[in-house]
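Sample entry (141 residues):
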Amino acid sequence: MSSEALNGDIPWPGTTKPSGRVKFLNRDKGEQLGYVLKLPIKSNPVSALPEKYRKTTKDATGLEFGPPDQVLYEGHFQFTLRDGDGFVLLKMDGPVEHLSAAAENSVQGTSDQTVPDSVIQRTKEVDVGFLVTSCNPCQVQ
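Predicted structure, serialized as tokens:
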């Protein structure tokens, strides 16, 4: 998991690399990358949260909110298509996904971008990463 686009005030939980399957799908728009992925994310212990998140707060109607059970992450999967020698043929982003801490986070989808046939024929490996663009209840520092 990469947080390049976000400098949040809640520490990142432990995670592993995404696992799953990818394949090229012939769609009306052309060949797209389809995926079935899993990205397990460990929980965010309340004790690790900044003090401001560990308090109980009340809204204008008197409804009380306690510390968040888990953090929700918004971002997208990044796919790097490589040839047999490890050279990058194409990098592409998947659509926006919403993942949660303390969950297995299984997702299935397709890229919006089409993949040229010349790239498909030479692709031998697809690297997958997840780029976080925002989180809730994080606040950017």
